[in-house]
Amino acid sequence: MHDSRTFTAELPVTLPSALQGSQIYFGKYDALQGEAIYAVEVPNNWDGRGVIMWTHGYAGTGAELDVPMPSDGWREAVINAGYAWAASSYSANWYDARAGIEDTNKLALNFVDYVERDYSQRLDTPSQYLISGISMGGHIAAAAVDRENLERTLFQVPYAGAAPFCQSDQNEFQWLGDYTRLMLQIAGYDEEDYPQFRDLAGTFEPYFTIERIATAGPMVTALFNTYPGGSPNWGSPKNPDGQRLIDIARNLTGGERPVFAQGFNFIFNDVVLGTGGSDGTVNGILASNIYDNQTRVYRWTDDPTPTPEEELFNQNVPRLSADPNANPLRDDGVRWIPLVNGDFDVPVLTMHTLGDFYVPFRHQQLYLERAIDNGNDDLLVQRAIRAQSHCDFSAGEYSAAITDWLTWVNGGSKPAGDDVLDPVAIADADYGCRFTVGVRSGVPACTPPP
């Protein structure tokens, strides 16, 4: 379906301003599925020290393309380090991470020429290329340095490192399918066809580039109480079944940890339900189903062995199989959904908020497990941030991460990180305190040091 979608790249009437001490450029270029918009910001008197390619997150399903700008905290950290940054709108919206990689790589190799063409100014050719992004952009940044994609992309860029933050990857669609299908099961609607999910969940309203529940429907109200306006009160399970869904979600998203409860009772629970009812094609990015739960074991307890009740529950869960040819290798670049296999040979530093319910902390655990399997986990540093939202990083967190990452990439010492696999460490009340800068409203403060 995605092949039939068309997009328009038009520069906005009012362009964002450059940070103090830098220059910013905007223009258009020919990309994978049509024109794309570029943004380039360089420090004054930039000598080509290096460029960090910024990869933006999901931008919705509209036909108009835009370049979602990095946060000022990220931009300031990059510019203050003497690096330039460049970003593409990509030539397509929806979850098109393929266009994200190919269009970003083409821009990396050609932005000096584009700026000269559009502004009659010749920038220096960068001596180093790096890549960083958030959410779907984190998926793109992580995939861009993964061996399969490095070898198969149409535009090969020798990235010296990656900093994917709150990154999604191919497992995101497993999570979205699991949670929504389990809600159907636990609420007693397992006999309904999955496409009926949205009607049973409630009514929806726009929330930035996605949707959220406005009024809870019968499936949600079977498990949770509601606020006076009718929206779900995720912090108030109505019965043991509601609590069971909470406990299963905790295990699926990374296990017992601080800030999970705040993340579950946050707006992104409503947003996850806005994805319900998909047929597994990632809204037409693929031609067939990618979701598979044939071997998944869903747990609400933490004992090593499932309880008899859990075993019975899993026997009754409807099972689906993915089409093995849903996301094949291509001979014209990377896959439709590029894989993050944890197979890289450059320094990678990540950050993830502990309460993120949209792109859960579990993604970090899977990333490390894959890196261990490939024998390159010594090149991965991961940091847990005590926040309940999605990609909610403070300027101080960005500054520390970018500074430490650049030092490491350029031959300095490997920075510190958090252990994301030890369940005892993760469950500690102060987990995530080491790299969190600032206290978010509603999130427990860390224990003061002695």
Automatic annotation (TrEMBL):
SUPFAM superfamilies: alpha/beta-Hydrolases
Domain of life the protein comes from: Bacteria
Sorted UniProt keywords: Hydrolase
One MF annotation (Gene Ontology) recorded for this entry: hydrolase activity
Name of protein: Alpha/beta hydrolase
Source species of the chain: Halopseudomonas oceani
